[in-house]
Amino acid sequence: MRSAFSILLVFVSLGNALAQSGCRASLSDVGEDAWQQLNASTNGRLVAVVPSAQYCYDVGCTDEQWVSSTWRGENMPGSMLQPNWEQDYDSSPPELCFRNTTGNCKHGDVPWYAVLAETVEDIQAGVNFARTNNLRLAIKASGHDYLGRSTAKDSLLISTHGLQNFTVHDDFDGHGSAVTVGSGMGLRQIYPALKETGKIIVGGNAATVVAAGGYIQGGGHSALSPALGLAADNALQFTIVTADGEHITADDTQNSDLFWALRGGGAGSWGVIVSATFRAYNAFNATLAYTYLTTNSTNATDIGSLMTTHAAHIHDFDAVHGGQYYYVLQNATGDGKRGFYAHTFFPNVSADTSKELMQPFLTEALATGAWGVLQEKYQEGVINDLIYAADNEGAQNTFMGSRLVPETAYDEPEAIGTMYTRLFEAGAHSVLGHIVAGGKVTENADIDSAIHPKWRTAKTHVIVTNSWTDDADMSSVQNMRSLFQTAQRPIMEKVTGSDAGSYSNEGDAYEADFVTTFFGQQNYGRLSEIKTKYDPDDLFIVKAGVGSERWNEKGLCKVA
Ligand SMILES: Cc1cc2nc3c(=O)[nH]c(=O)nc-3n(C[C@H](O)[C@H](O)[C@H](O)COP(=O)(O)OP(=O)(O)OC[C@H]3O[C@@H](n4cnc5c(N)ncnc54)[C@H](O)[C@@H]3O)c2cc1C
Ligand SMILES: *[C@@H]1O[C@H](CO)[C@@H](O)[C@H](O)[C@H]1NC(C)=O
Ligand SMILES: *[C@@H]1O[C@H](CO)[C@@H](O)[C@H](O)[C@H]1NC(C)=O
Ligand SMILES: *[C@@H]1O[C@H](CO)[C@@H](O)[C@H](O)[C@H]1NC(C)=O
Ligand SMILES: *[C@@H]1O[C@H](CO)[C@@H](O)[C@H](O)[C@H]1NC(C)=O
Ligand SMILES: *[C@@H]1O[C@H](CO)[C@@H](O)[C@H](O)[C@H]1NC(C)=O
Ligand SMILES: *[C@@H]1O[C@H](CO)[C@@H](O)[C@H](O)[C@H]1NC(C)=O
Ligand SMILES: *[C@@H]1O[C@H](CO)[C@@H](O)[C@H](O)[C@H]1NC(C)=O
Ligand SMILES: *[C@@H]1O[C@H](CO)[C@@H](O)[C@H](O)[C@H]1NC(C)=O
């Protein structure tokens, strides 16, 4: 406990006075007795949070730990996969804490305390405490969030990492096979556990992303989406602790409005999810194709012409419902060379057939001589083993921006290629693309949920990343922060149109019109009503989330 607390008494009325000023209470306004009560009511699961770099300075950590998504996500309560979200670049002077600092760390945007919840009661105690004391509240499942929404300055954090429940159902309420997972369970645990039962769910590609946390609330895309739809299309039920501290069920018969919002209405805006139930499919064999190309050319037009070829072949896997994650990197091999990496997932397709399906693109891509093959590999196996990577690395400072690219944009492959050339000329560090739409995602257009309607007419989701190292000066960091909106968004919109939408889990935290871009005007009115019904005092506010327009950037004070 910070000793300052001991000289303050607990007056709930103090919190109320601050509420009238339109700001959250300061944590030092909450007396030590109250914190101790919270600790007691959570069985001693309240901890003081330390910024990750401070921990490495005080206690020590290895380089492997520092970049590990498992260490950052699961072992360090206040750590984000991207350390830039732990910094407060906006205060004057900035409050920073870098790896290998000499003990000169500031707390930045890291929460002060965390409830490491293991039970529903722990979550309820945290929610009730934050509401009663008018505190800024943050929720973290894995800390993977690209918009920094699982941390908040001057906040109390509820970590759901300890919620590791896992139950397989043969028939869930007449929906057939399903699995219920706790909101702390990472994909790296879920896929192998499902393998034991011969089942698979629609889930993401990163090992430590939590299926029942931010992923599902954003909608959740997967290499299996062209075959089986978005993750949210396959969500059957949630249990959630809402702002009033109640633990309720949301599905198509109970609290169905909240069920609608939880499927695409955005992470962290509705309550603390305890568990989610997903439709489960029989596991199947698949092939994962690795296609890595490099070029010696430093001319961005050589990226553009490769991506024109890629766009011309975008429909090559449609008949087999293939999904693909592909990346173009500025400095792929560490010697400054550009690289193209694709991981293509072919459900129910043999390695030989997968290889045949890749050849039209590969042959044309290599024909100009600018690109060479670094690796070409076809791995067959059960989908549970192929779909995720072991421990995706993190610890890179990154801001990003993205757009859903409509299927119709692929009628002009050269425009897509030119978009890539321009994006790299405009400073992009990498451009990631996902063939995770079309097919079943389009067929699921009649599902009534908060999924952005633009998902149903998209073919890919394309993300631009802008990264930097800790030695960059503050003006370059601020430049990185605005680069997508000022320079890169206009380049993408030439191809996608100005209202193409973006995936709220992999977008720009500073998106100029987040309502249209992340949710769509059609859905936002209904989302706002549901928000007001379940969270009338805006306890759950995240960057670019529903209701955030009423709060300042840090979510600490209401704007007029
Ligand atoms: C390497 C990498 C790969 C990725 N791959 C994919 C992919 O294949 N498909 C895809 O769709 N996305 C992918 N993503 C994006 C991913 O969906 C988001 O990062 C998502 O926010 C992660 O959710 P989380 O709960 O694990 O993360 P967190 O950072 O812990 O939380 C993210 C958001 O959800 C909220 N939240 C977390 N837990 C709860 C809870 N229990 N109740 C309520 N709110 C909660 C947080 O407050 C925050 O707003 C990837 C991200 C990374 C870093
Ligand atoms: C909460 O209680 C536990 C066990 O009693 C203790 O170890 C921990 O330090 C306490 N947390 C805080 C923030 O004081
Ligand atoms: C921090 O220091 C360690 C140990 O000296 C070193 O291996 C590592 O590369 C440094 N990391 C950074 C980001 O400077
Ligand atoms: C875990 O699952 C069991 C059995 O399904 C249930 O009784 C328990 O309440 C669950 N715990 C949490 C924290 O969800
Ligand atoms: C998957 O492949 C394995 C090994 O080739 C085989 O034994 C198994 O029967 C296959 N499973 C299905 C569902 O086809
Ligand atoms: C890059 O290639 C294009 C097309 O071949 C050419 O017009 C342009 O001059 C080149 N740019 C540089 C910097 O070499
Ligand atoms: C490429 O990356 C390596 C190490 O990752 C770095 O040393 C080098 O300066 C980078 N080169 C360019 C051109 O960015
Ligand atoms: C894989 O094949 C099985 C058996 O034909 C079928 O039931 C299943 O739907 C297929 N799955 C996918 C994702 O294509
Ligand atoms: C790049 O340069 C290396 C070394 O000169 C050469 O071996 C390689 O074939 C070149 N790659 C391409 C795609 O031209």
TrEMBL record:
Gene3D superfamilies according to UniProt: 3.30.465.10
Single GO MF annotation: oxidoreductase activity
SUPFAM superfamilies listed in its UniProt record: FAD-binding/transporter-associated domain-like (SSF56176)
Every FAD-binding PCMH-type domain range: 105-283
Keywords: Oxidoreductase, Signal
Keyword Coiled coil among record annotations: no
One of the Pfam families matching this protein, by short name: FAD_binding_4
Signal peptide range in chain numbering: 1-19
Keyword Signal annotated: yes
Family statement: Belongs to the oxygen-dependent FAD-linked oxidoreductase family.
Official protein name in the record: FAD-binding domain-containing protein
Native source organism of the sequence: Cylindrobasidium torrendii FP15055 ss-10
Origin organism lineage: Eukaryota, Fungi, Dikarya, Basidiomycota, Agaricomycotina
